[in-house]
Every structure is written in C-alpha cells, then in structure tokens.
Amino acid sequence: MARIFFAGIKHSGKTGMARLVSGMLGIEAADADDLVLPLIAPMSVREFYLVSGKDAFMEKEAEAVGSYIAGHGSFIMSLGGGACDNSRLIGIVRESGRTVYLRRKEEDMLPVILRHGVPAFLDPDDLQGSFHALYQRRDAIYREIADLVLDLGPYADKADTARMIAARLEENGYV
Is the previous residue joined to 42 through a cis bond, with omega within 30 degrees of 0? Predict the structure, then answer.
C-alpha cells in the first residue's frame, strides 16, 4: 500500500504534481485543503482561518486528513503549505505513510506566491523579509520530517518533473 504525502511551501506545486504523479502510477490523488472544505462549509479555507483562527483550522485539517486515511488505501496527498506547523497532522501523516518534500528555491517561490495576491502570513510592508523568515523556518521543518527531499527547479516542463518524481518514488520503494 502506497501512502505518500507531498509537503512543501505554499504554491510549490504539490497539488498539481500529486495529480500528475498519481495518474502516472495509477493511484488516487487527494488534496488536504479540499478535504477540509466539507468540515468548514460554507466558508472557504481562508475565511475559516480568518474567522476561527489558526488552531481551529489546524484541528479541522488533522481531522479531515485522518478521516480520509482511515477510509482509503493507496494515494498521493498534497498537504497545505502550512502543514509543518500542525504537529497533530504531522503525527498522523508520519504514522500513515511517507512524506516527500517538494522543495523549490526560495528565490523562485515569492513571485509565484505573489501572483495570487499577498497572503495573510506575509507582512505587506516587508514581503521579502517576512517570506525569507517563513521560508527558512518551514524549509528546516520540512527537511526534518521528510522521508525524501526532491529539489525542483522552476518547471520547464511539468510532465517531465512529474515523471522524475514518479521515478524517484519507485526507486525508493514508495510505490
């Protein structure tokens, strides 16, 4: 049974790669953010986080992922970018499968994140500095909890990147 969790910084490509790689390997794909939605409806993840706070969101996130794991066999799941801050979730993930950190360079990530607007976790008066601090902290945690770290560059070709990831998962006996 293959249970693989893609972890990484926000907008690092976890969900897209989970979908592509799972299709190549013939296993199900899941997105932790999508799993949370039924538990917080009618709010979006962002709305729930703003109204109820970080701790309440992390509790719902761990509940949703744990429930999904209990009802499924093999899958590749993309975790939210802040999953590393949710110790309960990380405990569930580590007990259930393998964590793969899809790592992208810091200098490549901020422009990608800002294409979607300034997120609440960045200081609008110091985007570069606040992102640097966040990236350094999360990168260290993801490196520590990951069973496998895959350094990804800017995607020249997403399908080629997905094939590389699938090959590495197979080489390491994850599938």
Answer: yes
- 17-63 per-position pLDDT tens digit: 999 999 999 999 999 999 999 999 999 887 898 899 989 999 999 99
- Say if pTM beats, i.e. exceeds, 0.90: yes
Retrieve residue 128's tokens.
């570069």
What tokens were used for 127?
């985007």
Task: Report CA-CA distances (Å) from 168 to 8, 68, 96.
Answer: 17, 25, 20
Q: What is the C-alpha to C-alpha distance for residues 66 and 49, in angstroms, rounded to an integer? A: 19
Beta pairing, strands 3-7 & 28-31: unpaired
Distance CA 29, CA 27 (A): 7
* H helical segments located in 81-157: 87-96, 106-114, 127-145
Between CA 20 and CA 12 the distance in angstroms is: 14
Domains of the chain: 3-171 (3.40.50.300)
Helices vs. strands in the chain: H and E counts, helices first: 8, 5
Length of the chain: 175
